[in-house]
Amino acid sequence: MVHRTDLSHYDNSWYDAGPVFRRALWYIAHLLFFRSGFPFNSVKKILLRAFGARVGQGVVIKPHVRIKYPWKLRIGDYSWIGEEAWLDNLADVHIGSNCCISQGAMLLCGNHDYSRRSFDLVIKPIILEDGAWVGARGLVCPGVIMKSHSVLAAGSVLSRDAEPYSVYRGNPAVKTKDREMKP
Total domain count for the chain? Predict the structure, then answer.
């Protein structure tokens, strides 16, 4: 017998995104200060902290950034989040210090189990260790750890952990070389 996807059986009632009132307030703040062209970094950091994010010093958050749930976000010191980056953090996202998430990059913590008729939600955390860089329009998939100073090239899709001081490119991304750091 051939089984087919049946979305009427989809049930993610097990997933806790946080209280409805908190999510509604975040939605409004997010639209006004993050999705808009609002340029003032300090206000964004204050709002993120007010909603439960842990944000280090010197963090830069450019305009038009999407952040799903700040209470599931931790950002280390001096990290940058570029224009139109999307942190779809249905699970915890930990961004180390001195990380760069370039323009249009996406950290995707959720997906669906296509092998199940009910298309169940699957979530996994993402970790970017210190010095990691996600290039423009790069995609980091659920459960991935980008080790210290690893790089995902522009437009690439990382679906497995990245080794430290390594450069990954392609779809799926593969290691292409070592990242050599100059003084």
Answer: 1
